[in-house]
Design brief:
Strands 1, 2, 3, 4, 5, 6, 7, 8, 9, 10, 11, 12 and 13 form a 13-stranded mixed β-sheet that branches. This protein has an 8-stranded mixed β-sheet with strand order 15-16-17-20-21-14-22-23. Strands 18-19 form a two-stranded antiparallel ribbon. Helix 2 runs antiparallel to helix 8 and helix 3 crosses helix 4. It starts with a strand and ends in a 12-residue tail after the last strand. The protein is built from 17 helices and 23 strands. The chain is elongated.
Length: 557
């Protein structure tokens, strides 16, 4: 055997035929070792890294390629697979019948050439042959080795009665019900975007992760350019498939999938945060599963990780390994111990869902506040943080009876008009879209230059988000969602005009003393006083009823 060293990206295209030929013959379904992926990565992301590809030649035939990224740590040459922070899976490009001999030959040559050496290989699927061969090599050489693994769930489309399987699971988390609600509000469809629309994908991804920690770097620097260029690849085994969920001509979710010979790997998912209440990410994922099944894919790969969403749909699991192995020198062994300790801690932390969510949400929120937060955002965050230990909530429920409405001595024209969800989407106000989801009729100010949210009415239920109360309304009663005392008299007069025989309910919090005083002047009567106190693990709720009917229709969760 003979080794050919490929050290520049300009040399690589001369070997494309051999590289593609080996993977085609082996029916490779790992997209991250395809020539198209590696070539683009080396051109864009790995341009400033020390990369070398060992091509193994035997009897005038190239039987394999070993792409390595080489780094120096403590004077030790660390050989790792290329794209460690971007490729989910890795491996060697070698003819199967020569894999053991080629691995032994290349690794022996590296060990002879470098006195201080350490191997760090990520992304090795346990079901794959490369992982077994590498482990066997290090065991036979009695090399100090550490192995780490992370779960990799997948859906075996080719071995499952998909129609039955899908129908049994599509109702999980109420996705089918949320989809129906969304379709009632406007047009909903899936599509494949054009090249000049991809900027929306990155924008949506940034919005989804604006208040959380994202470790993938999907939209950062050269990685963004790399993922955009991959979409342009044609006539290769590697293909990028972007699916978009569109509501009223606006992107609300997308999936970025990497495909290779019957395997679909879910790589990135983003969605509009204001539409998260509709579970649009789950909805699009289901649509993508249906599409891949109809196109006769064999495997729908959810990629590495312990996220609950992945286990909702998986039929089987694999494991993705990271293997560390060091040379015989004390310096290499010491570095091995340090890297192995770090990897062990990382593995333990990632396997804990509570720690992962704490890092993602708490640190992400703090980062958002430092970069973009205003004073009111900081106050809200501190209040929320303090409320986890101690909180005192005090809410009054007021009623303006329909049978004895006090008509305001004020001429009221058409001050407000119903707002459509398309207008609410443009405002990008938190919780505004959720009002439509909850069934409210949302109103806007007719005389404002732009669509401004004014208030919302519900004909069937009243709710207090602070106390997690959602209860049905009595007949001939409406519930008013209006946060402060501004224009409460005008809103009441407008309601009297459009619903003259109906009663109106509204809430006022502990600090909204102006609103309570104004409501009393307008003729509202307090019918319920609700308190909730929390101190550590102790919680207590009290409800005082001021209504004549004894409160039989009210139930506090």
């Amino acid at each position: 055997m003979q080794i050919l060293r490929i050290q520049t990206v300009r040399e690589l295209p001369f070997y494309k035929v051999f590289w593609d030929g080996i993977l085609e013959a082996e029916q490779n379904d790992n997209p991250f070792i395809e020539f198209a992926w590696f070539y683009k990565w080396w051109q864009i992301v790995g341009a400033n890294e020390q990369v070398v590809v060992y091509a193994v030649k035997k009897d005038n035939d190239i039987i394999g390629f070993f792409p390595f990224s080489i780094k120096k740590k403590w004077g030790i040459n660390v050989f790792s697979f290329t794209g460690e922070n971007i490729a989910n899976y890795s491996g060697f490009i070698v003819k199967k019948e020569w894999l053991m001999q080629a691995v032994s030959f290349v690794f022996d040559e590296i060990s002879k050439r470098h006195r201080h050496v350490l191997f760090s290989f990520h992304g090795l699927l346990e079901s794959g042959l490369s992982s077994k061969i590498i482990e066997q090599y290090f065991i036979e050489r009695q090399t100090h080795m550490s192995i780490f693994r992370v779960v990799t769930p997948y859906l075996a489309l080719g071995q499952t009665d998909f129609s039955t399987y899908f129908n049994n699971r599509r109702k999980m988390h109420g996705v089918d019900r949320r989809e129906k609600k969304l379709r009632k509000l406007g047009s909903l469809s899936c599509k494949t975007p054009e090249q000049d629309e991809l900027w929306q994908m990155f924008k949506l991804y940034d919005r989804r992760w604006s208040k959380e920690i994202d470790m993938s770097g999907f939209t950062v620097g050269k990685k963004k350019e790399f993922f955009e260029q991959l979409v342009l690849i044609e006539d290769e085994a590697l293909q990028i498939e972007v699916d978009v969920l569109v509501f009223e001509n606006q992107w609300i979710a997308f999936t970025y999938g990497i495909c290779c010979r019957g395997r679909y790997v879910t790589y990135a998912l983003g969605y509009e945060p204001n539409f998260n209440i509709f579970e649009v990410g789950r909805l699009l994922n289901q649509e993508t599963m249906k599409r891949t099944f109809s196109e006769e894919y064999k495997v729908f790969d959810f990629s590495i990780g312990y996220e609950p969403d992945k286990f909702d749909w998986h039929t089987d699991i694999d494991f993705t390994r990271k293997i560390l192995a060091s040379g015989e020198t004390k310096r290499a062994k010491l570095l091995h111990i340090c890297l192995a300790t770090k990897a062990r801690v990382k593995e333990m932390l990632k396997s804990s869902r509570r720690i992962v969510e704490w890092k993602r949400n708490v640190w992400g929120q703090l980062r958002y506040l430092v970069k973009r937060g205003h004073m009111k955002d900081w106050l809200h965050y501190v209040q929320k943080l303090f409320g986890q230990v101690f909180s005192f909530k005090h809410v009054d429920l007021y009623e303006l009876p329909g049978s004895s409405l006090t008509m305001l001595h004020r001429q009221v024209g058409q001050l407000y008009d119903e707002m459509q969800i398309q207008e609410a989407m443009k405002l990008e106000q938190d919780n505004l879209v959720s009002l439509f989801y909850k069934g409210f009729t949302v109103y806007k100010d007719c005389f404002a230059k732009t669509s401004n949210y004014a208030f919302a009415l519900h004909a069937h239920q009243w709710n207090v988000d602070a106390l997690q109360i959602v209860e049905p309304l009595p007949k001939h009663t409406y519930f008013l969602a209006h946060g402060d005392d501004q224009n409460i008299d005008v809103i009441t007069a407008f309601f009297q005009k459009i619903k003259p025989t109906k009663a109106l309910w509204v809430t006022a919090g502990f600090w909204q003393w102006k609103k309570r005083r104004r409501l009393q002047k307008l003729g509202y009567k307090r019918i319920f006083h609700m308190k909730h106190m929390k101190c550590g693990h102790f919680e207590r709720s009290r409800v005082k009823n001021y209504s004549e009917n004894g409160g039989g229709i009210h139930f506090i969760n």
